[in-house]
Amino acid sequence: MIQFEGVGLSYGDGPPVLKNLSFRIAPGSFHFLTGPSGSGKTSLLRLLLLSRRPSAGRIVMFGDDTTGLSGDRLLAIRRRIGIVFQEFRLLDHLTTFENVALPLRVQGLPDSAYRENVTELLEWVGLGQRMEALPDVLSGGEKQRAAIARAVISKSELLLADEPTGNVDPELSERLMHLFAELNKMGTTVVVATHETSLLKKFAVPRMVLKDGEVRFHD
Asked: pTM here?
């Protein structure tokens, strides 16, 4: 599904954040992405999302060489990817329900085709009573849960999550990880960036460890 060939990333004239990354991620796999603060986890996720181009090397996604892709072709690949950002990125003028349903609306689906699924997912993540609330009245943890629900509702082929449990309690954190695991069992490839040692110990998931701009894989 994903292939990096000699990929490097620098910001402006600064030193390389990532350097000479060459690896493959198989379809249907599940990886934790770990590493010390500032090691480049978020930068790597941006490359995987294709929201930033590498400074060097080549990235192949879903069998397509993304070098030089733009416009509709790039957008078509990104629509196959779900993402949970650290900063939530909910739309302020939309309710919780509308934010979560947005990826399905963009696909052109009618309300009747997804209302039940969105409602069920919101109840599962503890937002059943907050479906009509706007983001400005939600707590940080509630916003995080809404962002996760939005990312998983369309059952993307690839799901990327940047510290998805950073604003929720340990019990809900574990429930959300089980949600990712269930999506993975259904065929979604999952990459979760985290520094939470409790999750790393509890879930037997292979790790991608970033250090000094390089990545190592560990079972």
From this structure: 0.85
